User: Fold this.
Amino acid sequence: MNSVGINGKTAIGSGSPDSDLDNAEMQQIVEQVLEAVPRGSRVLAIIPDKTRDDNTHILFPFAAEILERNGAAKFDALVAQGTHSPMTEAEKFAKIGVTDRNAFPLLGDIYDHRWDEPTELVTIGELPAGQVTQITGGLFTESIPLAVNKLAAPDRYDVILIFGATVPHEVAGFAGGAKYFFPGIAGAELTHKTHWLAALATIESIIGRIETPTRHLIEAAADHIAAEVVAFTSVVTRNDDDRLRTHALFAGGYRSSLRRAAEVSRLVHIKYTGRKYRRVVALLDEHYEDLWLGGKASYRLGAVIETGGELIIYAPQLRCFSETHGEDIMRFGGYAPIEKIKDLVANSGELQANLCVAAHLAHVSYAGRTDDKGEFVPKYRIKLASQIDSETCRRVNLEYLDFRNFHIADYQNDPDTLIVARAGRDLYLVEPATD
Assistant:
């Protein structure tokens, strides 16, 4: 679908790696797009959950004010939490920048997405086998039914707004855009398929690239959304004082806005080291509360770790691998290279039904190598310094380090060690990749 008042091949907005957009500039962009929303429209906002760092709390109030002024009939929100745990009501209000609900009389309900509850989902079509085969280069060859949250069903809303920021991402290449539909508010099947597709295509050929088979698959799926769609895609960072900086904001179709934002993101969120390191110490970003998210330290640093090297993840806030998938991570044998995970999937119907978990196991391991015995082993060792005990780490093929005995000074003077603060935010590469 084209966005309201905008040709789907274009997007409006501004920004660059050096920009620092103020609220007035962002409000002008939001207003320019939403002025075209017809009076009486039913509008649904799809918003990120608390695991994403973005400027929804700034943009959402602008949208609410403009829609109310222009006579929209309804304005609800749906959290694109994928398979993550729901937020509290206070966290939801903080996410959309609402301190006083009475200040936004148009604002209706804020819904959670229940990906595992069939009564909350509706099928809106399917991707035929031929299209799937073409998009994935033959990695998948069967048709895929498209189940989404019932709020995205035809005739529920006239306009759907997507709010979110883009960064390099291990599944889609870059986060944002159509990813807020699939897997953001999708059912299990395409969620599993997209994650496994990225694992099969290998993380090294996906993350930090704009045109990927996963991106093309989720965009083809999103074309089945009946409502008109406007995507607000930002590029943000945090300064040393934790101030949120918006480098860019683009609004338009989910294809055009994502690509314009990703061109800025790749200059902001990708760091080049010019060499590999024997050891990388990742001081995990405090926003990541489990390894399901904290695995980004491996995804985004693996390319600069030498074969046979070591990744230390210092994360004293971590208490579990995943509230949702933790038991499965341990039950299926833990983290391992994609070559081993493919064998596990081929021989386990249960893991075939949990491809999202299978992909996570391979992604955290990042890549494999062949050892002296001809066996596939991880490219590098991962040592976890968290509140997870040593035996539990061993069960998932991680080494253990007591976080109370971790001292950053032990590593600071080693020229073969790279120390990364807020690890998991930025992607580190030796040199620029070619698309």
Remarks:
- The longest strand covers residues 228-238.
- The chain has 14 helices and 20 strands.
- The chain has two domains: 11-268, 271-429.
